[in-house]
Design brief:
The structure is a homodimer of 380-residue chains.
Chain A: E1 6-8, H1 17-23, H2 33-50, E2 56-60, H3 63-74, E3 80-85, H4 88-94, H5 96-100, E4 103-108, H6 117-124, E5 131-135, E6 137-138, E7 143-144, H7 147-155, E8 161-165, H8 177-180, E9 184-188, E10 199-204, H9 206-214, H10 224-231, H11 242-258, H12 260-280, E11 284-285, E12 294-298, H13 305-316, E13 318-322, E14 331-335, H14 342-358, H15 367-377
Parallel strand pairs in A: 1-13, 3-4, 3-5, 5-8, 8-9
Antiparallel strand pairs in A: 2-10, 6-7, 9-10, 11-12, 12-14, 13-14
Helix pairs in contact in A: 1-11, 2-11, 6-7, 11-12, 12-14, 12-15, 13-14, 14-15
Chain lengths: 380, 380
């Protein structure tokens, strides 16, 4: 039976057909007037997605590469940062201090929880911090925070920079770099921005740019000062993944056409529908403050990760993610970002119903998708 | 008049249609058995191209990213390296010392020249070097060296590592990592390996791996120890540009089918034909030891870079590269690497003849392509 491939991992996510076709076009050179025009348009569209008037730098590399560019460009060796540690990605950023001579104080929280503005405010009161590092949407636990409120309190602590991993928030749900007063934000191409992996993006506030100018950290490929110099001429300091950049334009134009508010609304609508659906099936969410970009669901007793995800894959050609690290086997994760619509959301829910039933779990077929449908109706 | 687009810049180079179509396939996730199989095959094919039994690491990033991974993983802060500085890329690698606390002694040569084994041997005699860094094929000047002879003398200096930028040599003309005793070699995806930019590759000898284990340099995204750990499971430590990796397989299988010796022979044949052609037109080569991957040609008096390359582009839809830095306006460069055959070589020569004539240079039409044809006949 024909069963279309449906990718529901929280990155890489599906890429629009128009963008894929762009990737199949003959390769051109990047030191041309045409490419500079492309790169200039990319810049404007990235600013729109980040909701900023600041420059957004393009790094050829993964989201981790973007984080490294941000971290090593603005955080000085010997300084102290506060890292909110509440998941696998937050743990990765905490380990950056060790590699780059930065003292990292951690605000540790159980998986599935996130810091409040009050907690961050209280921790910062001890003083001496150069920056706060946090993950806006911790992909490993599908957990978000009130970033606007957090930014507000960080702003009250002088020159403390707010460094935000927005890899699975920017372009998925509300994120306003300028209005909220974020200092550093990063994302990757393979999440909400509807492209394969290979590009990372970094935005710096004027305060972060000032910190960068004074910083003595050792870097080269990740030295954003080099990117800043090049971007004045709509260029990059090192050979960029130019076919990905050209294709990124196609996807970002789609976001512009839908409007960023429209994209946020759709993603939030799908997430709300999916959460309502799995709850109606008697399943529990893992996160105490769920992100709208990805949902983590606890396995009910008697259902193993292997059986569940294998059945979804084999019977339904649907790929959802499992848990990472110690969460492996205890949760599955479903993406709502990027090139996915409400009927994709219904499809994955329907497949989950059928899979649970096949694996011997008593489910009322249609209960999940009906509950989701109630939520989806709010979008019309 | 229909005029097909022909890309002759020394990277990005043309990508085979089959590879482009692979890039247009729907995106899948990379933490799967299928992708691990792909990645394992990539590994075998890269070993074939590098002519090694050692592991070849895949970095999502440009060739500079691959160099940084190599340099920061094996060269310790405080140590001294000998950098052969004879072009724009060699100059870039010389500047790495400053960023990473490494003392760089330079063997400086005029553009268009390269170091001999004797020069390197003499310089190393002063002692205390941890490594020699050189560019096998300096793309900015289209100049190569006798790497096999150089490797032989470096081997006589104890633990001195030989770090080779093979970005425009590996997969273009003879390069034998194991047989020649190279310690570190890097290349990028967008040159001989027939893929768009976005992936870099690094190979380490057992001696280089041992140096890496002892090294205390600060790195993270570029820490090859992390890649070594992951590759045991055919995986990468950070999200790879997985669609590029899948497409790389298509291009590398083509190289395997042609055989690496066949690829070298074709590239060398095209380069020899092109050099014979431009000489027959009265033009001069820039390099004293020309590389077979790219040819740099001096502009004759009265021909400006702007007129020449604009005419090639507008009349013939052919894109060749100009000179970089102080060489700008004095040379043009034509690629022979990757997805390009003998008739592409004839086409660019024919277009150069027509362009020179149009710009008022007295040329005997057909003289260049006839001379090239003599060389090409040796391939049959």
């Amino acid at each position: 039976m024909l069963m279309k491939y449906r990718l529901f991992t929280p990155g890489p996510t599906s890429v629009p057909e128009a963008t894929l076709l762009q990737l199949a076009k003959p390769v051109t050179h990047h030191r041309t007037a045409e490419f500079r025009k492309t790169f200039a348009e990319l810049q404007e569209l990235l600013k729109y997605v980040f909701q900023t008037q600041q420059t957004v730098y393009t790094i050829t590399g993964s989201g981790t590469a973007a984080f490294e560019a941000a971290f090593t460009s603005v955080v000085s060796p010997g300084s102290k940062v506060l890292n909110v540690t509440n998941g696998k990605f937050a743990e990765r950023w905490a380990s950056y201090g060790k590699a780059f001579g930065v003292q990292v104080e951690e605000l540790k929280l159980p998986y599935g929880q996130h810091a409040t503005a009050e907690q961050i405010n209280n921790t910062l009161k001890s003083g001496g911090f150069a920056a706060v590092v946090l993950v806006h949407s911790e992909t490993s636990t599908a957990t978000t925070c009130d970033l606007q409120a957090i930014a507000k309190v960080v702003r009250q602590h002088g020159d403390v920079l707010l460094i935000v991993d927005g890899i699975t928030s920017i372009g998925a749900f509300p994120f306003k770099f300028d209005d909220w007063g974020i200092d550093v934000a990063i994302t990757g191409s393979q999440k909400s921005l509807m492209l394969p992996p290979g590009l990372g993006y970094v935005c710096l506030s004027p305060r972060a740019e000032a910190a960068m100018e004074k910083n003595k950290q050792s870097n080269f490929y990740f030295d954003l000062k080099k990117y800043k110099k090049s971007i004045a001429d709509s260029d990059t300091p090192f050979t960029p993944a130019n076919t990905l950049i050209e294709a990124q334009l196609t996807s970002l134009r789609m976001i512009k056409q839908e409007t960023i508010e429209g994209v946020w609304r759709r993603t939030q609508g799908c997430a709300a529908a999916f959460r309502a659906g799995v709850k109606a099936l008697g399943l529990e969410l893992f996160s105490q403050t769920p992100a709208d970009s990805v949902t983590a669901v606890k396995y009910p007793s008697g259902i193993t990760d292997k059986d569940f995800r294998n059945t979804l894959k084999k019977d339904h050609n649907i790929h959802v993610a499992g848990g990472q690290g110690t969460m492996e086997g205890t949760i599955f994760r479903v993406n709502h970002m990027g090139y996915t619509d409400i009927y994709d959301c219904l499809a994955v829910l329907a497949a989950i119903e059928l899979t649970l039933k096949k694996l011997g779990k008593p489910v009322q077929l249609g209960a999940g998708i009906s509950a989701a449908q109630q939520e989806l109706s709010k979008l019309f």
